[in-house]
């Protein structure tokens, strides 16, 4: 039943995307307002691309080595877009942010069975009104049929305190045992997606859990990486 609902959801998103961006190809840059055939004009796209990040292997936990990829540095422009999306509830910005993430998804050279967005606790989703990380993958759902997005595998079963202002150790302690795997992930290759990477505590907790549950390979893709990380 869950698979059928996910399929229907993906088809609805594909139709929404088609009507909005294919049937009417001329629209406006979502940052500066210039007419363009894409979500961003060439000038804004060139500016954002100047903040692209390199990838690196995370060795914070010597027993859990995994590949991490970042799209962009968390500069003032992206910080403002994310702030408007997450806290001002300008949900339509999911298409812009999702577009930026999908551009890097296409560059991945490894195969994965599915993508898992970092889950929020149900109380946080209820408070915010939407699952902000999952919605960022709506662009991918609408434009890519090859890699499914699974929101039924990993859940945040325990509500944690806000991570803002905590140091690395406090973040790790705050997230300990807050996630739960609900489906079999044995021998699966998994890509974890998140919006902003700060210290890596969330990713370390998730990867460690998925590896314990038998996942073969776990990769990380984050839309933004803070300068302090």
Write up this protein.
- The protein has helices at 2-22, 42-49, 76-86, 93-105, 122-128, 132-135, 138-143, 168-175, 201-212, and strands at residues 27-28, 35-36, 56-58, 66-73, 114-117, 154-156, 179-181, 189-197, 217-225.
- The protein has one domain (53-225): 3-Layer(aba) Sandwich (Rossmann fold), CATH 3.40.50.
- It has 9 helices and 9 strands.
- The strands form 3 sheets. The protein has a 5-stranded mixed sheet with strand order 3-4-9-8-5, with helices on both faces. A two-stranded antiparallel sheet has the order 1-2. A two-stranded antiparallel ribbon has the order 6-7.
- The mean pLDDT is 82.
- It is an alpha/beta fold.
- Helix content is 39%, strand content 19%.
- Strand 8, helix 9 and strand 9 (217-225) form a beta-alpha-beta unit.
- The N and C termini lie far apart (40 Å).
CATH architecture descriptor text: 3-Layer(aba) Sandwich
> In the CATH hierarchy, what is the class?
Alpha Beta
Termini distance? 40 Å
Mean pLDDT: 82
Low-confidence blocks of residues? none
Shape, principal axes of CA atoms: globular
How is the largest sheet built, in terms of strand order?
3-4-9-8-5
User: What fraction, in percent, of the residue positions are helical?
Assistant: 25-40%
What's the Cα radius of gyration? Answer: 17 Å
Structurally, how many domains make up the residues?
1
Percentage of residues in DSSP E strands: 15-25%
Instruction: Determine the CATH topology.
Output: Rossmann fold
Structural class: alpha/beta
């Amino acid at each position: 039943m869950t698979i059928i609902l996910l399929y229907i959801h993906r088809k609805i998103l594909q139709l929404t995307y088609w009507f909005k961006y294919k049937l009417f190809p001329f629209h406006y840059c979502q940052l500066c307002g210039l007419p363009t055939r894409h979500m961003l004009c060439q000038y804004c796209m060139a500016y954002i691309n100047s903040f692209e990040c390199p990838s690196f292997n995370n060795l914070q936990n010597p027993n859990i080595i995994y590949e991490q990829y970042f799209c962009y540095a968390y500069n003032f422009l992206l910080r403002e877009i994310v702030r408007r999306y997450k806290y001002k509830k300008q949900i339509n910005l999911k298409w812009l942010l999702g577009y930026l993430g999908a551009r890097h998804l296409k560059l991945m050279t490894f195969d994965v069975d599915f993508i898992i967005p970092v889950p929020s606790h149900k109380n946080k989703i209820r408070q915010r009104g939407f699952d902000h990380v999952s919605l960022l993958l709506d662009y991918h759902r609408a434009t890519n049929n090859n890699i499914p997005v699974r929101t039924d595998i990993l859940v945040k079963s325990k509500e944690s305190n806000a991570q803002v202002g905590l140091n690395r150790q406090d973040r790790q302690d705050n997230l300990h045992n807050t996630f739960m795997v609900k489906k079999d992930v044995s021998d699966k290759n998994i890509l974890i997606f998140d919006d902003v990477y700060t210290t890596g505590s969330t990713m370390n907790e998730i990867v460690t859990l998925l590896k314990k549950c038998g996942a073969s390979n776990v990769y990380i893709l984050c839309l933004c990486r803070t300068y302090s990380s």
